[in-house]
Input
Amino acid sequence: MKEECQIFSTPAELAHAVADDFLAASQKAEMKQKKLSIALSGGSTPEILFNILANSPYKDGVRWEEILLFWGDERCVPPDNPESNYGLTRRTLLDDIHIPKKNIFRIRGEDQPEIEAHRYATILRKHLPLDKFGHPRFDWIFLGLGNDGHTASIFPGSAIMKLKNKICVVAEHPQSRQKRITLTLPMINRANKITFLVTGSLKSQILREIFDRNSGFEKYPAALVQPVDGTLLWYLNREAGAALSV
Ligand code: 6PG
Output
């Protein structure tokens, strides 16, 4: 596993760096004539990225037709619900860019969770490239870090942390009991590239425990994101990285 960490002065600077990576990756996909399968996350940090990608030079510079968009997790609500991760992406990005509708594979939060988890796993098997063991893998997954160390919708103490062979499952938010659909850690860790977008001082101590591998760090689901043979990138703003010794 190759791991890198970059700390940026502001969330906007962080998001612009990611948008530049996004642009370059889409141009490379066009040259290689191989579509790029990307899983997005929800949260406030990706929202900044989406707003930047929806404007020049990315709006018209990114080769959107080369990009297949998926989600790493979704709340089990309809797409027009303010809680919907897809709805957030649609409002802040998809409504403003020319991406073919056939390139968008949302999780249907309005459907029965167990049925949708099974359907989405079938979609991923059908549309994603396969690794050397024949398992579907993403080219690039974006993840956030919750204040409790969760990532995607894998929460501390959840049995989902121990799953070894599922692609995506039904999760439940520990406080709200809201049902979610989430990729599992084995599915996440098969990705070729995983980028954590983390902002805010509330994350700094958890990041320090994860980076220092302090005893008990593995109680945080985000700490179990360890790509099998891909690259793990941490993009932090100054507040989130404040407790790190890097
Ligand atoms: C979700 C998100 C979640 C998010 C983190 C960080 O559906 O809740 O996917 O995993 O990434 O909570 O959110 P912020 O970027 O807002 O800190």
In short: The CA atoms of residues 168 and 183 lie 4 Å apart. The mean pLDDT is 96. The chain has seven helices and nine strands. Strands lie at 2-8, 36-40, 67-71, 73-75, 140-143, 168-172, 179-183, 193-198, 231-237.
